Amino acid sequence: MEALDFTGRAVVVTGGTRGVGAAIAAAFLAAGARVLVCGRSQPSSVVPDFVPADVRDPGQAAALVAAAVDRFGRLDVLVNNAGGAPPAAAASASPRLHAKIIELNLVAPLHVSQAANTIMQQQPGGGVILMVGSVSGTRPSPGSAAYGAAKAGLHNLATSLAAEWAPAVRVNSIVPGPVAGDAGLQLDPAAVARTVPLGRPATPAEVAGVCLLLASPLASYVTGAAVAVHGGGEWPGYLADLRAQMPPPAQR
């Protein structure tokens, strides 16, 4: 079997009907996997196998995993992609909004992961769980404090589950920076070019490619890791003038 051939594998992608989630689902499909995606409402476009589910509800999270096993006979890969948050000032956002953001971005992945782990521990070959985090969980996140805190917790959750559920189940995080087409993020191309070393946002397909790698045998000894997909990070503001003075890189 080729390392990135997922023929015969069963994959669940939460929030897999649009944006990065849809790209992840499409990448696994193209690699031969059978893919089940979920969302809170029926998607308007054609997607892989779909079940409606609000993964903040532990019962619906468990039902999602059960649906995958019922359809595919096993579950090899879970991608906890569902998440996001509207911009909100921490000083004035309601307690309910903060609770909902943390519930979606931290508690919900734990619900789905618990259900998936129960299946993966019992099947030959175990399984892989991937958390789609964010650079907001690795540095200050003004304007989205609850979201950043939840993503920081998600990164820590992945390391804890990786230690607790090994060796049968590997758990890793993908940590994207700005992603083109992200519905919850209004990107200023000039600002991205000024602050991101690679000079542009990631494409959803580039994030999906890292998911394929971490779910594949090429990463068979990788667990508890957080893989940054952020184009080199962000230039500190106080170095902006220095960067502008630097000569352009040599062309090859």
Provide an overview of this structure.
It is built from seven helices and seven strands. With about 250 residues, the chain is an alpha/beta fold. It is globular and about 55 Å long. About 40% of the residues lie in helices and about 15% in strands. Helix 1 crosses helix 6 and helix 3 runs parallel beside helix 4.
How is the biggest beta sheet arranged? 7 strands, parallel
Give the CA-CA distance, first to last residue. 35 Å
Radius of gyration based on Cα positions: 18 Å
> What topology, given as strand order, has the largest sheet?
3-2-1-4-5-6-7
Strand content: 5-15%
What would the average pLDDT be, to the nearest integer? Answer: 91
Q: What are the low-pLDDT stretches, counting only 5+ consecutive residues below 50?
A: none
The proportion of residues forming helix, as a percent range, comes to 25-40%
Number of strands: 7
H and E order: EHEEHEHEHEHHEH
Structure class: alpha/beta
Based on CA inertia axes, which overall geometry fits? globular
Set down the secondary structure blueprint:
Layout lengths: L9 E5 L4 H12 L3 E6 L9 E4 L5 H15 L4 E4 L14 H26 L6 E6 L12 H21 L3 E8 L12 H7 L8 H12 L10 E4 L10 H6 L7
Helix pairs in contact: 1-6, 2-3, 3-4
Keywords:
252 residues; 7 strands; 39% helix; alpha/beta; 15% strand
Give a brief description:
By secondary structure, the protein is α/β, with parallel strands linked by helices.
